[in-house]
Design a protein that fits this description.
The complex is a heterotetramer, with 2 copies of chain A (114 residues) and 2 copies of chain B (285 residues).
Chain A lengths: L11 H6 L1 H9 L3 H9 L1 H7 L4 H8 L3 H6 L4 H10 L4 H9 L3 H9 L7
Chain B lengths: L2 E8 L3 H8 L9 H15 L5 E6 L10 E2 L2 E4 L3 E4 L12 E2 L2 H13 L5 E3 L3 E2 L1 H10 L10 E7 L9 H16 L6 E7 L16 H13 L1 H5 L3 H8 L7 H9 L4 E12 L2 E10 L6
Parallel strand pairs in B: 1-10, 2-9, 2-10, 4-7, 5-8
Antiparallel strand pairs in B: 1-12, 4-9, 5-6, 11-12
Helix pairs in contact in B: 1-4, 3-5, 5-9
The chains are: A mainly alpha (114), B alpha/beta (285).
Bound molecules: fe (iii) ion (2 copies).
């Protein structure tokens, strides 16, 4: 598992790199697409033209890897929602905590930097 | 002529809407936040606008990444509530104010703002949660019509804070030149500090938020001078949503009065706040 | 640093592309138009840019009516040729210049232009016909990369002519601040007078067109002062496309030289013209 | 047959009025939609939610009526293209001429106003 960068900013270059990935996540707005993805995740990734790297991080639920390959958190969160994972769970993944630890850190006033 | 009667700044966290929809506002986790809203809600209930101009951003629900406009205005007669993956929120459909929308688009275009028009739009939590903050129990219909004003905050480069403040000033002029005697409220939504992704996920910067919450009233030009990078570093990659408060602030006159504010950590991953300002108008009355 | 080497104003009528695609440029109907292009084409062939910034509008092919941005910039690595209902034009795919695009977007946003980004875009005759006017026989690939700049001219209110001229000036500054030593040509497309629908269909206003063709060089500010209504009344509901020539003109320096122009009636329902200007730069050389 | 207005400007109000109409015309970008329309025009109009007035002018090829009900010429031209009608033909309809007369008027320098 790689370490997350401090910040992920969806600039135009990342938008290009992550284009297929975010387009696929965006398709999950529609219930029938969610069902189709669930039925055969790999085929669905291929249909949306993901690179093999992008496909791998999706299938493995490597949430940091997705960001590194251009995913926007607002888009990859749609995959998390299908998996019934919360934003706190993802926060834990990004910061090396459990969802509970992460939620507690917020409850305690949030994480401080700088 | 139309007048701006108040401006509301408020976070638009989806879980705030979900807490209302699932009747959890009395739970220990949520009670302090909603208690903080109470005085503002009471005042607003006594000062009802005809139209709410709601400045917000879409979150991957109605705007894709193929075509990303910087500023947009909804021009429709009605807006459906978006299905964000867990079904539509159980709130009323949003009624538009297409004549006012068309007036605002025209005036802002002539005032050198390059506005995209959303002639069809499903509105997500960015717009519906602030409406619920204003009006928790709408029943069958929201108590006012709505003009959605969309700002890109997701894709870099976002508009600068200075440009957002300028847009607000143009919006205020445009509203006040609308030739119908209606009362308008302006909502600036999003924030406060939060970051969803990356090693800094969970960031909350209370000092920055407290400064912002004060300066939005007294020193908006100071906030408008901050760069994109300042907002991201200090308020988090999603805290940059605060630039939308500046659109609201710009639309108010110089003569405002703070009715109420509240600040609470956390609402999910976010520092949530509300600040309500009455607009006393450009002339004394 | 990048430099703007020339600016081309040209009509983008689909039938001009079709005449080339179907080898009819020698037919009596078309020969006068293409003969008029010859001196400009010869000069441009000796002054090849690395990138063409093509200011154009889409015609119901890639931009719908749900979301209509005022100004947009393509940011993609490549752009497919749109199928406009009679199959794709037999011309090469368009190669983008994404680094320049990103630079232009960033600079223009910081310069108070509210730019929509087209991260995915099929380009229609509005862009490909001007490329064919520049380069009639591209073979397998166009001779330069392209940055599409899109302007809404179909939905009212269009940007004002003054705003288009200002956008051009910002665009010129942004191009000249790009830190790579590349040569850039700017295309302003559309026009001249024409109207497709209504009782005034078939309108041609030669006096207006001749005035415009001169003033675009010497008095652009005069053209920028005309209102939307002026353009529609004088040049026709579609003649308002001429505001896109002002974007090109704004991007050039004050120090320009007319290489060639030509004017011909009709190309289908349109008065077709071309005007080519060398940019001699802001300093003498 | 009604007389055309001098100018048709697609302002925001007309965009709203013509929304279903223009959306249907826009769908003709895709060949399979053109085929589906050709197979049952009325059903296709209903599917796109046209008003009965809008449906009537489409089925009758009342090109002026379409404009009056909010059509943009760039959109209704897609229907004309399917019918193999040229912009000169439409110009003739709008001005009470044949396509040939209209093309001749252009050839002679265009129509002058004001
Ligand atoms: Fe948000
Ligand atoms: Fe055109």
């Amino acid at each position: 598992m790689t370490t997350a960068k401090d910040n992920y900013v969806l600039d135009l270059e990342n938008n290009r790199r992550g284009y297929a990935l975010n387009r696929m996540f965006g398709s999950f707005r529609h219930a029938e697409n969610r069902d189709e993805f669930a039925a055969d995740e790999a085929a669905y990734c291929d249909h949306y033209g993901l690179t093999s790297e992008q496909k791998k991080v999706v299938l493995q639920r490597d949430w940091i890897g997705m960001l590194d390959l251009g995913a926007s958190i607002f888009y990859s969160f749609k995959l998390a929602t299908m998996d019934r994972k919360s934003m706190q769970y993802l926060g834990g993944v990004f910061t090396g905590m459990t969802a509970e630890q992460f939620a507690e850190a917020l409850q305690a006033g949030g994480r401080k930097f700088g | 002529m139309a007048e701006v009667i108040w401006g509301l700044a408020t976070s638009h966290v989806p879980s705030i809407g979900a807490a209302m929809d699932n009747h959890k506002t009395g739970d220990p986790y949520w009670k302090p936040l909603f208690d903080g809203y109470a005085p503002a809600r009471e005042w607003m209930a006594g000062h009802k606008p005809d139209v709410a101009v709601v400045v917000y951003n879409d979150h991957a629900n109605a705007v894709g990444l193929d075509l990303v406009p910087t500023f947009g205005i909804g021009t429709a007669e009605a807006y459906d509530v978006a299905d964000e993956g867990w079904g539509q929120r159980p709130v009323p459909r949003v009624t538009g104010a297409p004549e006012l929308s068309a007036h605002l688009v025209r005036e802002l275009m002539d005032d050198s703002f390059d506005i995209a028009t959303f002639n069809q739009l499903d509105v997500d939590h960015g717009l519906t949660v602030p409406l619920s903050v204003y009006c928790p129990d709408p029943g069958d219909a929201w108590p006012c019509a709505v003009v959605p004003v969309l700002v890109n905050v997701i894709q870099y480069p976002q508009p600068t804070a200075a440009r957002c403040f300028a847009l607000g000033q143009g919006l205020g002029r445009a509203i006040r030149s609308f030739p119908q005697d209606i009362k308008v409220a302006v909502f600036g939504t999003g924030g406060m500090s939060h970051q969803l992704a990356g090693a800094r996920a969970g960031l909350i910067n209370t000092e920055f938020d407290r400064m912002f919450l004060q300066a939005i009233e007294t020193e908006p030009a100071k906030l408008a001078a901050l760069t994109r990078e300042d907002y991201i570093r200090q308020a988090g990659t999603e805290g940059i949503e605060l630039i939308m408060w500046l659109v609201m602030r710009g639309a108010l006159s110089e003569n405002i009065r703070r009715i109420h504010d509240t600040y609470h950590v956390p609402a999910s991953n976010t520092a949530a706040a509300l600040a309500l300002f009455e607009d006393l108008g450009t002339v004394s009355r």
